[in-house]
Amino acid sequence: MEKEEIKDPPIDSAEISDEEKEASSEDKIKNLEDKLSRTLAEMENQRRRFEKERDDAFDYGGFSFAKEALNLIDNLERSKLSLENDEELKNNQSLKKISEHLEIIYKDTLSIFKKNNIEQIKSINEKLDPNFHQAMIEIEDDSKEPGTIVQEIQKGFLMKDRLLRPSLVGVSKKTVKKDQNNDFKTKNTNENNEKEEQNN
Asked: What would the pLDDT profile of 141-173 be if each residue is shown by its tens digit?
């Protein structure tokens, strides 16, 4: 007798493919949902970025123009000082009129700046703030606390909350007495001599 081979029952390919299709369909749905949520998040980020850029362009669009216009203020101040310090023109009636007109132009320019949110940085008698001030010189002054601004060399300006130009200032420092200087030099000389003796 022939031996019959035992065969595994045939696998229904329709069942497997339906299960695989169902599993792969769920994966596809999850992937699509993930892609959709990422795309929506990216669109929201782009919208926010666009709004910020639009607001910045509206608020600070004239930033470079304003920065250049500061030279106008500086030149008006210099012109007025130059005329007032000229010995030949000092007692001249024309000088007074010119000075008055320059002052009017200066004030009008500051008024226009203020309307456009450009304001001077307060400096004199303020503490030095490196965000708004740039120290150019130190001035010995015992009546003020060290680091207090006692001289303004060039005015600084802000446009809303952005710095257009820092104020160039002179700050106070304590007076160093000559005796202290001599004591300090003597002390340094003695220390240097001791070091040299130790090295030899």
From this structure: 888 888 899 999 999 999 988 899 999 999 998
Whether residue 46 lies inside any domain: the answer is: no
| Residue 154 backbone dihedrals phi, psi, to 5 degrees | -145, 135
pTM over 0.85: no
Domain encompassing residue 132? 118-200
Alpha carbon distance 75, 134 (integer Å): 20
Question: What CATH number does the domain containing 138 carry?
Answer: 2.30.22.10
- Please give the C-alpha separations between residue 89 and each of 65, 74, 101, 138, in angstroms, as whole numbers: 35, 21, 16, 34
Digit-coded pLDDT (tens) for 85-121? 888 877 788 888 888 999 999 999 999 999 988 999 9
